[in-house]
Amino acid sequence: MKEGKNMKDLTQELTERFYRYIGVPSQSEPNGGTQVPSTKGQWDMAKLLQKECEEIGLVDLHLSEHCVLTGRLPARLGPNKKSAPAIGFCAHLDTVDVNLSPVVHAHTVENYDGGDIVLNREKNLVMKAAEHPELKPYVGQNLIVTDGTSVLGSDNKAAIANVMTALHTLASDSNLYHGDIYVAFVPDEECGLYGSKNMDFSRFPVDFAYTIDSCELGEVVYETFNAGTAVVTIHGVSAHPMSAKGVLLNPTLLAVDFMNLFDRTETPECTEGKEGYIWCQAVKSNQSVAEVTLNIRDHDKAKYEEKKARIRKYVDDMAKKYPRARFELDMSDTYGNIRDALTDENGKAIDYIYEAMKELNITPKTIAMRGGTDGSFISTKGILTPNYFTGGMNFHSPYEFLPIPSLVKSCETTLTIINLVYEGA
Q: Which keywords has UniProt assigned to this entry (predicted)?
């Protein structure tokens, strides 16, 4: 960025926005996508952003019945520039529900001295430096922390602050040129990517997009799991114990037999890196019916499909072995590997991240994520959507913290990517 806000102004706006956004409780609730959004607080968050987007000057603003807020910052083209790629940014409105308070009480630790951080003196909640070595690189920096009773919400409100500050910066300075910039603020990412799955992509007509949903300064993600879910329902035969011989067919034991068909070393706790797994994630049963829920994950699409085929085979084998029982399989894809959407034409989207970091003297930390982002689903729609860092640490934890200099670097990365896309057109 050759022009624009100075570091002090950028830091102040980002910090103020972040505190304002985390002040809106917007936890999502897992419900299998039966209601999107799953909580009222996400509506509150979306309406706040809708108002702020109007004030900044975004057009084509639309808040859908599923609380997906989309809009566009119109292109500002310089002399002799006829066009530039349209790019998008997607961030999620919800914070995760991990049985902590939905209300965030945060404070800033000024010039962190390297010692323990008292989060909540009244409740004696302390983040001990000896137990959190991830604090060490941030000595001397200002850190935003929780009061120990909630997550902080950097995931993903640091991204929202980032995007909104970037939009405001661009709209406020006539010397900053760019193509059309689309935004999508979506609900219920934390409980199944249900917001992005309910996007109207005609309102997001971009060449490529970005999520800002990773952690440490410099993290870059363009490889995620292929992910799916399988629910196996087993109908047994119930009988009174006094006359059960030859009649009773216990669905709970059949569920155990089914789960024992899987490799006990091909599970989340036994795998790492790009190793996939099948996770027997939940079992519910009674005298008549048992239900086994499986999560299927693999970076490699062929291996992912093999795992799905294996589940089908095991269900068929069980049905043949126990003909008096009835087995039902409901299997669906949840999201895909971002990398599978990569082509020669759109690959520049990833290159821009690394070019921006080089310009900003940020050391990239490329990660094959053992999980997924909204971009993992959006990419399945043919819109390559890689991911980069918010700067936040210890997501989904009361010990979450956000180093303000890392938040600033994240926003500078956003602004630099936008500039590089424009200059490269």
A: Aminopeptidase, Hydrolase, Metal-binding, Metalloprotease, Protease, Zinc
Structural contact between residues 403 and 216, judged by C-beta atoms closer than 8 angstroms? no
Domain count, the chain: 2
Look up 55 and say whether it is catalytic: no
CATH number where 64 lies = 3.40.630.10
305 an active-site residue? no
Please, are residues 210 and 412 in contact by the beta-carbon 8 Å criterion? no
Q: Which residues are annotated as a binding site for Zn(2+)?
A: 92, 155, 190, 213, 396
Dist. CA 110–CA 117, nearest whole Å: 11
Looking at the fold, whether 130 and 16 belong to one and the same domain comes out as yes
Provide φ and ψ at 84, rounded to 5°: -155, 150
* Span 227-239, pLDDT tens digits: 999 999 999 999 9
Q: Domain containing 118: what range?
A: 1-224+337-424
Record the pTM.
0.93
Q: Please enumerate, by residue number, every residue annotated as part of a binding site.
A: 92, 155, 190, 213, 396
Burial call 88-116: b when 16+ CB within 10 Å, e when fewer: bbbbbbbbbbeebeeebebeebeebeeee
Choosing from 189, 223, 374, 400, which is the catalytic residue? 189
* Cross-strand pairs, 306: none
Residues 12 and 141 in one domain: yes
The rounded mean pLDDT for the chain is 96
Measured in degrees and rounded to the nearest 5, phi and psi for residue 136 equal -55, -45
- Decide if pLDDT at 1 tops 70: no
